[in-house]
Amino acid sequence: MGGIALPHRMNGLEPVTRRMMHTWWRFSRPMTLGVRAAVIDEDERVFLVRHSYTPGWHLPGGGVEAGESMLEALHRELAEEGNIVPSGEIALHGIFFNRKVSRRDHVAIYVVRDFAAGPRPPDKEIVETGFFPVTALPEGITPGTRARIVEIIEERPPSSDW
């Protein structure tokens, strides 16, 4: 009889136990998750951005907010940083550990080839944007950004690290 009662009592404690474990995991194993997109047009040009707060050219993207899916975050970031709206398939290229930034940072890279883009109003976060031929990337492109573009264009398997 004792064996039957224990699972019944544990079921009542499960929501509390689960909340306590999630709180513990948040502090013992914290992780950040970001998304970026290689937006490539029909002329094999890739869309890049330069931010006001960090040097170099980057793929557009940013952090995934609580309660937001990775694809929701990607759509939001593309709209904010490039006034870009994907209209076709969005393919996951890979998920990368960005240990140069933090021991807890991970970035998912998507490939977007079908999209609509409009003019982007200036703001304080993005200082410059543009489409660049993948064979003539701009000076100052970050090494991780260049590596992801090369993997995608040359159809190489993705690295595990950014």
UniProtKB/TrEMBL annotation:
Hydrolase: present as a keyword of the record? yes
Q: Which residues form a coiled coil?
A: none
Q: Which domain of life is it from?
A: Bacteria
| Assigned keywords, A-Z | Hydrolase
Supply the Gene3D superfamilies for this chain. Nucleoside Triphosphate Pyrophosphohydrolase
The record's SUPFAM superfamilies line, in alphabetical order, gives: Nudix (SSF55811)
Q: What are the residue boundaries of the Nudix hydrolase domain, all occurrences included?
A: 30-154
Entries under InterPro entries matching the protein: NUDIX_hydrolase-like_dom_sf (IPR015797), NUDIX_hydrolase_CS (IPR020084), NUDIX_hydrolase_dom (IPR000086)
Q: Which cofactor does it need?
A: Mg(2+)
Q: Give GO MF terms, alphabetically.
A: hydrolase activity
Say if the entry is tagged with keyword Hydrolase. yes
Task: Write down what this protein is called.
Answer: 8-oxo-dGTP pyrophosphatase MutT (NUDIX family)
Q: Lineage from the top down?
A: Bacteria, Pseudomonadati, Pseudomonadota, Alphaproteobacteria, Hyphomicrobiales
